[in-house]
TrEMBL record:
GO molecular function per UniProt: protein serine/threonine phosphatase activity
Protein localization: Cell projection, Kinocilium; Cytoplasm, Cytoskeleton, Microtubule organizing center, Centrosome; Cytoplasm, Cytoskeleton, Spindle pole; Nucleus
Annotated stretches, region: Disordered: 379-408
Name of the protein described by the UniProt record: Cell division cycle 14B
Species name: Cyprinus carpio carpio
Domain Tyrosine-protein phosphatase: 189-348
Protein backbone atom coordinates (compact mmCIF):
# COMPACT_ATOMS: atom_id res chain seq x y z
CA UNK A 1 0.00 0.00 0.00
CA UNK A 2 2.90 2.33 0.71
CA UNK A 3 4.24 1.79 -2.81
CA UNK A 4 0.85 2.20 -4.45
CA UNK A 5 0.39 5.45 -2.59
CA UNK A 6 3.82 6.66 -3.61
CA UNK A 7 3.16 6.01 -7.26
CA UNK A 8 -0.43 7.18 -7.44
CA UNK A 9 -0.41 10.28 -5.26
CA UNK A 10 -0.26 13.43 -7.36
CA UNK A 11 -0.31 11.48 -10.62
CA UNK A 12 -2.86 10.47 -13.18
CA UNK A 13 -2.32 6.76 -12.63
CA UNK A 14 -5.54 5.32 -11.27
CA UNK A 15 -5.65 2.72 -8.53
CA UNK A 16 -7.70 0.37 -10.67
CA UNK A 17 -4.86 0.22 -13.21
CA UNK A 18 -2.71 -1.74 -10.77
CA UNK A 19 -3.43 -5.45 -10.88
CA UNK A 20 -0.75 -6.41 -8.37
CA UNK A 21 1.95 -4.78 -6.31
CA UNK A 22 5.07 -6.75 -5.41
CA UNK A 23 7.35 -5.23 -2.79
CA UNK A 24 10.88 -6.59 -3.11
CA UNK A 25 13.21 -5.80 -0.24
CA UNK A 26 16.67 -4.74 -1.34
CA UNK A 27 17.06 -1.69 0.82
CA UNK A 28 14.97 1.31 1.73
CA UNK A 29 14.73 3.81 -1.06
CA UNK A 30 14.76 2.22 -4.52
CA UNK A 31 11.77 0.99 -6.51
CA UNK A 32 11.37 -0.55 -9.94
CA UNK A 33 8.04 -0.20 -11.71
CA UNK A 34 6.46 -1.35 -14.95
CA UNK A 35 3.83 1.23 -15.86
CA UNK A 36 1.50 2.15 -18.70
CA UNK A 37 2.44 5.82 -18.81
CA UNK A 38 4.96 8.33 -17.57
CA UNK A 39 4.79 9.55 -13.98
CA UNK A 40 5.98 12.84 -12.54
CA UNK A 41 8.21 13.37 -9.57
CA UNK A 42 6.69 14.81 -6.40
CA UNK A 43 8.15 16.35 -3.22
CA UNK A 44 8.60 12.88 -1.74
CA UNK A 45 9.19 10.84 -4.89
CA UNK A 46 11.79 11.03 -7.66
CA UNK A 47 10.90 9.10 -10.82
CA UNK A 48 13.13 8.43 -13.80
CA UNK A 49 12.92 6.38 -16.99
CA UNK A 50 15.57 5.45 -19.58
CA UNK A 51 13.28 4.07 -22.30
CA UNK A 52 14.30 6.75 -24.80
CA UNK A 53 17.75 7.58 -23.46
CA UNK A 54 19.13 4.03 -23.63
CA UNK A 55 17.76 2.28 -26.68
CA UNK A 56 18.98 -0.96 -28.26
CA UNK A 57 20.07 -0.74 -31.90
CA UNK A 58 18.71 -3.89 -33.50
CA UNK A 59 19.82 -5.75 -36.61
CA UNK A 60 16.63 -7.70 -37.26
CA UNK A 61 14.29 -9.06 -34.57
CA UNK A 62 16.85 -8.78 -31.75
CA UNK A 63 16.12 -6.22 -29.03
CA UNK A 64 18.68 -6.70 -26.27
CA UNK A 65 20.36 -6.92 -23.88
CA UNK A 66 21.61 -3.34 -23.83
CA UNK A 67 25.35 -3.12 -24.33
CA UNK A 68 28.09 -2.56 -21.78
CA UNK A 69 28.24 1.20 -22.29
CA UNK A 70 24.51 1.54 -21.64
CA UNK A 71 24.76 -0.58 -18.50
CA UNK A 72 27.63 1.63 -17.32
CA UNK A 73 25.66 4.82 -17.96
CA UNK A 74 22.65 3.40 -16.13
CA UNK A 75 24.78 2.50 -13.09
CA UNK A 76 26.33 5.98 -13.04
CA UNK A 77 22.91 7.63 -13.29
CA UNK A 78 21.35 5.53 -10.53
CA UNK A 79 24.30 5.78 -8.16
CA UNK A 80 24.40 9.54 -8.62
CA UNK A 81 20.74 9.76 -7.63
CA UNK A 82 21.27 7.53 -4.60
CA UNK A 83 24.23 9.66 -3.53
CA UNK A 84 22.44 12.97 -4.04
CA UNK A 85 21.75 14.92 -0.86
CA UNK A 86 18.73 16.50 -2.55
CA UNK A 87 17.17 13.06 -3.04
CA UNK A 88 18.25 11.53 0.26
CA UNK A 89 14.76 11.67 1.75
CA UNK A 90 12.91 10.79 -1.44
CA UNK A 91 11.72 7.48 -2.78
CA UNK A 92 13.53 6.78 -6.04
CA UNK A 93 11.43 5.04 -8.68
CA UNK A 94 13.11 3.61 -11.76
CA UNK A 95 10.34 2.74 -14.17
CA UNK A 96 9.58 1.77 -17.73
CA UNK A 97 6.38 2.51 -19.59
CA UNK A 98 7.52 0.95 -22.84
CA UNK A 99 6.55 -2.28 -24.56
CA UNK A 100 7.62 -5.72 -23.37
CA UNK A 101 10.99 -5.37 -25.07
CA UNK A 102 11.68 -2.19 -23.10
CA UNK A 103 10.51 -3.95 -19.95
CA UNK A 104 12.98 -6.80 -20.50
CA UNK A 105 15.89 -4.39 -20.92
CA UNK A 106 14.87 -2.35 -17.88
CA UNK A 107 14.65 -5.51 -15.77
CA UNK A 108 18.06 -6.62 -17.05
CA UNK A 109 19.56 -3.25 -16.05
CA UNK A 110 18.14 -3.13 -12.53
CA UNK A 111 18.84 -6.83 -11.99
CA UNK A 112 22.44 -6.45 -13.11
CA UNK A 113 22.76 -3.37 -10.92
CA UNK A 114 21.59 -5.41 -7.94
CA UNK A 115 24.19 -8.09 -8.69
CA UNK A 116 26.99 -5.57 -9.16
CA UNK A 117 26.20 -3.02 -6.45
CA UNK A 118 23.73 -4.49 -3.97
CA UNK A 119 25.56 -7.77 -3.38
CA UNK A 120 22.65 -9.86 -4.61
CA UNK A 121 23.25 -13.20 -6.25
CA UNK A 122 21.87 -13.55 -9.78
CA UNK A 123 19.26 -15.96 -8.48
CA UNK A 124 18.16 -13.57 -5.73
CA UNK A 125 17.86 -10.64 -8.11
CA UNK A 126 15.97 -12.69 -10.67
CA UNK A 127 13.59 -14.20 -8.15
CA UNK A 128 12.62 -10.69 -7.08
CA UNK A 129 12.04 -9.60 -10.66
CA UNK A 130 9.73 -12.53 -11.41
CA UNK A 131 7.81 -12.53 -8.13
CA UNK A 132 4.11 -13.33 -8.34
CA UNK A 133 4.40 -14.72 -11.87
CA UNK A 134 5.89 -11.59 -13.40
CA UNK A 135 7.43 -12.47 -16.75
CA UNK A 136 9.66 -10.89 -19.38
CA UNK A 137 10.34 -11.56 -23.03
CA UNK A 138 13.49 -13.64 -23.57
CA UNK A 139 16.20 -12.03 -25.68
CA UNK A 140 16.94 -13.52 -29.09
CA UNK A 141 19.63 -13.53 -31.77
CA UNK A 142 20.17 -11.03 -34.59
CA UNK A 143 18.69 -13.19 -37.33
CA UNK A 144 15.70 -12.65 -39.56
CA UNK A 145 14.17 -16.10 -39.09
CA UNK A 146 12.45 -17.83 -36.20
CA UNK A 147 14.15 -17.73 -32.81
CA UNK A 148 16.13 -20.92 -32.19
CA UNK A 149 17.50 -20.13 -28.73
CA UNK A 150 16.01 -18.09 -25.89
CA UNK A 151 18.29 -16.02 -23.67
CA UNK A 152 16.49 -14.96 -20.51
CA UNK A 153 17.26 -12.28 -17.98
CA UNK A 154 18.72 -14.77 -15.50
CA UNK A 155 21.29 -15.80 -18.12
CA UNK A 156 22.36 -12.16 -18.38
CA UNK A 157 22.56 -11.72 -14.61
CA UNK A 158 24.65 -14.89 -14.32
CA UNK A 159 26.93 -13.60 -17.08
CA UNK A 160 27.40 -10.27 -15.29
CA UNK A 161 28.18 -12.13 -12.07
CA UNK A 162 30.80 -14.32 -13.79
CA UNK A 163 32.32 -11.28 -15.50
CA UNK A 164 32.71 -9.61 -12.10
CA UNK A 165 34.28 -12.76 -10.65
CA UNK A 166 36.83 -13.07 -13.44
CA UNK A 167 37.65 -9.37 -13.60
CA UNK A 168 36.22 -8.79 -17.07
CA UNK A 169 33.78 -6.24 -15.67
CA UNK A 170 35.50 -3.46 -13.75
CA UNK A 171 33.95 -0.05 -14.21
CA UNK A 172 36.86 1.61 -12.39
CA UNK A 173 38.92 0.77 -15.49
CA UNK A 174 36.17 1.07 -18.09
CA UNK A 175 36.32 3.96 -20.56
CA UNK A 176 32.83 4.41 -21.92
CA UNK A 177 33.82 6.99 -24.54
CA UNK A 178 36.46 4.64 -25.92
CA UNK A 179 33.98 1.76 -26.03
CA UNK A 180 31.42 3.83 -27.91
CA UNK A 181 34.04 5.21 -30.28
CA UNK A 182 35.55 1.93 -31.43
CA UNK A 183 32.29 0.02 -31.74
CA UNK A 184 31.32 2.30 -34.61
CA UNK A 185 31.92 1.05 -38.14
CA UNK A 186 33.98 4.08 -39.17
CA UNK A 187 36.30 3.68 -36.18
CA UNK A 188 37.10 -0.01 -36.55
CA UNK A 189 33.96 -1.84 -35.39
CA UNK A 190 35.57 -3.79 -32.55
CA UNK A 191 34.93 -4.67 -28.92
CA UNK A 192 36.87 -6.38 -26.18
CA UNK A 193 35.09 -9.55 -25.00
CA UNK A 194 37.69 -10.50 -22.40
CA UNK A 195 39.86 -7.42 -21.72
CA UNK A 196 43.46 -8.09 -22.66
CA UNK A 197 42.66 -11.51 -24.12
CA UNK A 198 39.98 -11.41 -26.84
CA UNK A 199 39.02 -8.58 -29.16
CA UNK A 200 36.27 -9.23 -31.73
CA UNK A 201 36.35 -7.10 -34.87
CA UNK A 202 34.92 -6.77 -38.35
CA UNK A 203 37.08 -8.29 -41.07
CA UNK A 204 39.74 -6.05 -42.68
CA UNK A 205 39.70 -5.31 -46.41
CA UNK A 206 42.56 -4.95 -48.91
CA UNK A 207 42.03 -1.19 -49.05
CA UNK A 208 40.44 1.36 -46.72
CA UNK A 209 37.32 2.67 -48.42
CA UNK A 210 33.55 2.95 -48.15
CA UNK A 211 31.59 0.24 -49.94
CA UNK A 212 27.79 0.21 -50.03
CA UNK A 213 27.85 2.72 -47.19
CA UNK A 214 30.04 0.56 -44.94
CA UNK A 215 33.55 1.80 -44.04
CA UNK A 216 36.13 -0.88 -44.84
CA UNK A 217 39.56 -0.78 -43.24
CA UNK A 218 42.88 -2.12 -44.43
CA UNK A 219 44.98 -4.20 -41.98
CA UNK A 220 47.37 -1.28 -41.47
CA UNK A 221 44.57 0.80 -39.96
CA UNK A 222 44.52 -1.51 -36.94
CA UNK A 223 48.27 -1.68 -36.29
CA UNK A 224 48.58 1.29 -33.87
CA UNK A 225 45.71 0.13 -31.65
CA UNK A 226 46.82 -3.51 -31.70
CA UNK A 227 50.39 -2.63 -30.75
CA UNK A 228 49.28 -0.26 -28.01
CA UNK A 229 47.09 -2.95 -26.45
CA UNK A 230 49.56 -5.84 -26.87
CA UNK A 231 47.51 -7.76 -29.44
CA UNK A 232 49.96 -10.24 -30.94
CA UNK A 233 47.73 -12.72 -32.75
CA UNK A 234 45.07 -12.37 -35.44
CA UNK A 235 42.68 -15.20 -36.28
CA UNK A 236 40.72 -14.99 -39.53
CA UNK A 237 37.57 -17.12 -39.87
CA UNK A 238 36.21 -15.85 -43.19
CA UNK A 239 37.55 -16.16 -46.73
CA UNK A 240 40.79 -14.36 -47.53
CA UNK A 241 40.02 -10.74 -48.30
CA UNK A 242 43.57 -9.47 -47.58
CA UNK A 243 47.07 -10.90 -47.66
CA UNK A 244 48.02 -12.26 -44.22
CA UNK A 245 51.60 -11.09 -44.87
CA UNK A 246 50.43 -7.55 -44.19
CA UNK A 247 50.07 -8.63 -40.56
CA UNK A 248 52.94 -11.12 -40.31
CA UNK A 249 55.46 -8.78 -41.93
CA UNK A 250 54.77 -6.35 -39.11
CA UNK A 251 55.38 -8.93 -36.39
CA UNK A 252 51.85 -10.21 -35.78
CA UNK A 253 51.00 -13.90 -35.82
CA UNK A 254 48.19 -14.73 -38.23
CA UNK A 255 46.05 -17.88 -38.48
CA UNK A 256 43.33 -18.92 -40.93
CA UNK A 257 40.48 -21.13 -39.68
CA UNK A 258 37.85 -20.78 -42.37
CA UNK A 259 34.27 -22.00 -42.13
CA UNK A 260 31.22 -20.81 -44.05
CA UNK A 261 29.42 -17.64 -43.00
CA UNK A 262 26.47 -18.44 -40.73
CA UNK A 263 27.59 -22.04 -40.14
CA UNK A 264 29.28 -23.82 -37.23
CA UNK A 265 32.91 -24.99 -36.99
CA UNK A 266 33.95 -28.64 -37.04
CA UNK A 267 35.78 -30.17 -34.09
CA UNK A 268 39.19 -29.71 -35.72
CA UNK A 269 38.67 -25.98 -36.07
CA UNK A 270 37.50 -25.66 -32.46
CA UNK A 271 40.52 -27.60 -31.21
CA UNK A 272 42.96 -25.62 -33.31
CA UNK A 273 41.40 -22.33 -32.21
CA UNK A 274 41.69 -23.30 -28.55
CA UNK A 275 45.29 -24.41 -29.03
CA UNK A 276 46.26 -21.13 -30.69
CA UNK A 277 44.62 -19.09 -27.93
CA UNK A 278 46.12 -21.18 -25.13
CA UNK A 279 49.61 -20.60 -26.52
CA UNK A 280 49.29 -16.94 -27.46
CA UNK A 281 51.57 -14.64 -25.47
CA UNK A 282 49.40 -11.55 -25.90
CA UNK A 283 45.94 -10.41 -26.87
CA UNK A 284 44.06 -12.13 -29.68
CA UNK A 285 42.01 -10.29 -32.31
CA UNK A 286 39.42 -12.55 -33.93
CA UNK A 287 37.39 -11.68 -37.01
CA UNK A 288 35.08 -13.15 -39.61
CA UNK A 289 33.07 -11.00 -42.05
CA UNK A 290 31.15 -8.91 -39.51
CA UNK A 291 32.96 -10.15 -36.40
CA UNK A 292 29.69 -11.39 -34.88
CA UNK A 293 28.60 -14.94 -35.70
CA UNK A 294 31.65 -17.12 -36.31
CA UNK A 295 33.82 -14.89 -34.14
CA UNK A 296 31.49 -15.02 -31.13
CA UNK A 297 30.99 -18.76 -31.53
CA UNK A 298 34.66 -19.67 -31.14
CA UNK A 299 35.34 -17.13 -28.40
CA UNK A 300 32.35 -18.63 -26.57
CA UNK A 301 33.94 -22.08 -26.83
CA UNK A 302 37.09 -20.77 -25.14
CA UNK A 303 35.06 -19.16 -22.37
CA UNK A 304 33.25 -22.43 -21.67
CA UNK A 305 36.45 -24.48 -21.57
CA UNK A 306 38.59 -22.15 -19.50
CA UNK A 307 36.03 -20.38 -17.30
CA UNK A 308 33.26 -23.00 -17.16
CA UNK A 309 30.60 -20.59 -18.31
CA UNK A 310 27.39 -22.18 -19.47
CA UNK A 311 26.55 -21.71 -23.13
CA UNK A 312 23.85 -19.19 -22.23
CA UNK A 313 26.23 -17.24 -19.96
CA UNK A 314 28.87 -17.10 -22.68
CA UNK A 315 26.39 -15.93 -25.31
CA UNK A 316 24.93 -13.36 -22.91
CA UNK A 317 28.29 -11.84 -22.01
CA UNK A 318 29.50 -11.74 -25.62
CA UNK A 319 26.31 -9.96 -26.67
CA UNK A 320 26.54 -7.48 -23.79
CA UNK A 321 30.03 -6.63 -25.05
CA UNK A 322 29.25 -6.91 -28.77
CA UNK A 323 25.52 -6.95 -29.62
CA UNK A 324 24.43 -9.24 -32.43
CA UNK A 325 27.01 -11.94 -31.74
CA UNK A 326 26.36 -15.69 -32.11
CA UNK A 327 23.55 -16.26 -34.58
CA UNK A 328 21.08 -18.96 -35.57
CA UNK A 329 22.44 -22.54 -35.34
CA UNK A 330 25.62 -21.24 -33.73
CA UNK A 331 23.66 -20.81 -30.48
CA UNK A 332 22.64 -24.46 -30.41
CA UNK A 333 26.16 -25.50 -31.39
CA UNK A 334 27.63 -23.74 -28.36
CA UNK A 335 24.99 -25.32 -26.16
CA UNK A 336 25.85 -28.79 -27.49
CA UNK A 337 29.57 -28.22 -26.91
CA UNK A 338 29.20 -27.14 -23.29
CA UNK A 339 29.61 -30.53 -21.60
CA UNK A 340 32.62 -31.66 -23.64
CA UNK A 341 34.38 -28.30 -23.30
CA UNK A 342 33.83 -28.29 -19.56
CA UNK A 343 35.43 -31.73 -19.43
CA UNK A 344 38.35 -30.62 -21.59
CA UNK A 345 38.83 -27.61 -19.35
CA UNK A 346 38.87 -29.73 -16.20
CA UNK A 347 41.60 -31.92 -17.70
CA UNK A 348 43.56 -28.89 -18.88
CA UNK A 349 43.50 -27.26 -15.45
CA UNK A 350 44.47 -30.52 -13.78
CA UNK A 351 47.49 -30.80 -16.04
CA UNK A 352 48.45 -27.19 -15.34
CA UNK A 353 48.25 -27.88 -11.60
CA UNK A 354 50.47 -30.93 -11.96
CA UNK A 355 52.97 -28.89 -13.93
CA UNK A 356 53.01 -26.16 -11.30
CA UNK A 357 53.55 -28.79 -8.63
CA UNK A 358 56.74 -29.90 -10.32
CA UNK A 359 55.54 -32.40 -12.90
CA UNK A 360 57.11 -32.48 -16.30
CA UNK A 361 56.18 -29.67 -18.65
CA UNK A 362 55.11 -32.41 -21.01
CA UNK A 363 51.99 -32.87 -18.89
CA UNK A 364 50.22 -29.98 -20.57
CA UNK A 365 51.46 -31.04 -23.98
CA UNK A 366 49.86 -34.43 -23.37
CA UNK A 367 46.36 -33.10 -23.64
CA UNK A 368 47.30 -31.20 -26.77
CA UNK A 369 48.95 -34.18 -28.52
CA UNK A 370 48.07 -34.45 -32.14
CA UNK A 371 46.90 -30.87 -32.38
CA UNK A 372 49.74 -29.70 -34.59
CA UNK A 373 48.81 -32.07 -37.43
CA UNK A 374 45.11 -31.24 -37.41
CA UNK A 375 43.95 -30.05 -40.79
CA UNK A 376 41.24 -27.46 -41.01
CA UNK A 377 39.07 -30.02 -42.78
CA UNK A 378 39.22 -32.29 -39.75
CA UNK A 379 41.26 -35.41 -40.55
CA UNK A 380 42.96 -36.14 -37.23
CA UNK A 381 41.98 -39.59 -36.06
CA UNK A 382 42.08 -38.53 -32.41
CA UNK A 383 39.31 -35.98 -32.92
CA UNK A 384 35.73 -37.19 -32.95
CA UNK A 385 34.25 -36.32 -36.31
CA UNK A 386 30.98 -34.43 -36.42
CA UNK A 387 29.34 -33.94 -39.75
CA UNK A 388 28.55 -30.26 -39.99
CA UNK A 389 27.78 -28.00 -42.93
CA UNK A 390 31.20 -26.41 -42.52
CA UNK A 391 32.93 -29.68 -43.41
CA UNK A 392 31.32 -29.69 -46.83
CA UNK A 393 32.25 -26.16 -47.88
CA UNK A 394 35.30 -24.29 -49.06
CA UNK A 395 36.03 -20.61 -49.58
CA UNK A 396 35.25 -21.06 -53.26
CA UNK A 397 31.87 -22.56 -52.48
CA UNK A 398 30.98 -19.61 -50.29
CA UNK A 399 31.94 -17.33 -53.17
CA UNK A 400 29.77 -19.32 -55.57
CA UNK A 401 26.70 -19.04 -53.34
CA UNK A 402 26.24 -15.58 -54.82
CA UNK A 403 24.54 -12.58 -53.29
CA UNK A 404 25.22 -11.14 -49.87
CA UNK A 405 26.24 -13.43 -47.02
CA UNK A 406 24.97 -13.10 -43.46
CA UNK A 407 28.07 -11.11 -42.54
CA UNK A 408 27.58 -8.73 -45.46
CA UNK A 409 24.00 -8.04 -44.41
CA UNK A 410 24.88 -7.50 -40.75
CA UNK A 411 27.68 -5.09 -41.60
CA UNK A 412 25.38 -3.16 -43.94
CA UNK A 413 22.72 -2.89 -41.23
CA UNK A 414 25.22 -1.69 -38.65
CA UNK A 415 26.59 0.92 -41.01
CA UNK A 416 23.11 2.09 -41.96
CA UNK A 417 22.13 2.80 -38.38
CA UNK A 418 25.52 4.41 -37.71
CA UNK A 419 25.18 6.80 -40.61
CA UNK A 420 27.82 9.27 -39.45
CA UNK A 421 30.52 7.41 -41.40
CA UNK A 422 32.32 9.68 -43.82
CA UNK A 423 35.77 8.16 -44.22
CA UNK A 424 37.38 4.77 -44.43
CA UNK A 425 40.14 5.58 -41.95
CA UNK A 426 40.09 4.65 -38.29
CA UNK A 427 40.49 7.45 -35.78
CA UNK A 428 42.89 5.66 -33.44
CA UNK A 429 44.59 8.66 -31.94
CA UNK A 430 41.48 10.20 -30.37
CA UNK A 431 42.27 11.18 -26.78
CA UNK A 432 40.03 9.54 -24.23
CA UNK A 433 39.62 10.88 -20.72
CA UNK A 434 39.19 8.32 -18.00
CA UNK A 435 36.28 9.67 -16.03
CA UNK A 436 37.32 8.54 -12.57
CA UNK A 437 35.29 11.24 -10.86
CA UNK A 438 32.03 10.61 -12.65
CA UNK A 439 32.63 6.93 -13.20
CA UNK A 440 34.39 4.79 -10.64
CA UNK A 441 33.89 7.11 -7.68
CA UNK A 442 30.19 7.31 -8.30
CA UNK A 443 30.03 3.57 -8.86
CA UNK A 444 31.72 2.97 -5.54
CA UNK A 445 28.74 4.49 -3.76
CA UNK A 446 26.72 1.28 -3.89
CA UNK A 447 26.78 1.01 -0.13
CA UNK A 448 24.73 4.16 0.29
CA UNK A 449 21.23 4.28 1.62
CA UNK A 450 19.68 2.08 -1.02
CA UNK A 451 16.93 0.25 0.70
CA UNK A 452 14.19 -1.25 -1.36
CA UNK A 453 13.71 -2.44 -4.93
CA UNK A 454 10.11 -2.82 -5.93
CA UNK A 455 8.58 -4.30 -9.03
CA UNK A 456 5.10 -3.05 -9.85
CA UNK A 457 3.21 -4.98 -12.46
CA UNK A 458 0.30 -3.23 -14.13
CA UNK A 459 -2.36 -4.38 -16.54
CA UNK A 460 -1.04 -4.72 -20.09
Amino acid sequence: SRLVGALTSGSRIQMHALIRCVVLCFADQLYFALLHQKVKSTPDRHCFCIDEELSYENFYADFGPLNLAMFYRFCCKLNKKLKSCALAKKTIVFYTCGDRKKQANAAYLIGSYAVMHLQKTPEEAYSLLVSQNASYLPFRDASFGACMFNLNILDCLLAVHKALQFGWLDFSKFNVEEYEHYERAENGDFNWIIPGKFLAFSGPHPKSKIENGYPLHAPEAYFPYFRKHNITTIIRLNKKMYDAKRFTDMGFKHHDLFFVDGSTPNDAIVTKFLNICENADGGIAVHCKAGLGRTGTLIGCYMMKHFRLTAAEAIAWIRICRPGSVIGPQQNFIDEKQASLWEEGDVYRQQITEQENGSSKAAVAGILSGVEDISINGTNKNISQRKTPSEMHTEEEEEECGGLTQGDKLRALKSKRQSRASTGSISLQKPFITRQATGSKVLQSAGLAVARLVCVMVAE
